[in-house]
Amino acid sequence: MVKSSKGFRSRTRMVMKKKVWEKGMPPVSHYFQHFDDGTKVIININPSVMKGMPHPRYQGKVATVVGRRGRAYVLELIDGGKSKIIISHPVHIRIWQ
What we know:
globular
């Protein structure tokens, strides 16, 4: 048998799926969102934008903004009892309410 692929987007058929009314590129305003340090955000991956995409295992997790790195944001979250640092483009994050 052939070995199955273990790529970055493997086994993400439902995670990376968009609804019919969400198809296409996101609005330009999502690219220019601003988050202050200490803000709680949700990692919400937009599959139509590859740039700055966090790993799909962090989809739906709540993280804290620690700083910026270029256009992207540095996020910190607890995963399995360990603190993880994630770098994500603002298209893939939104404010937690």
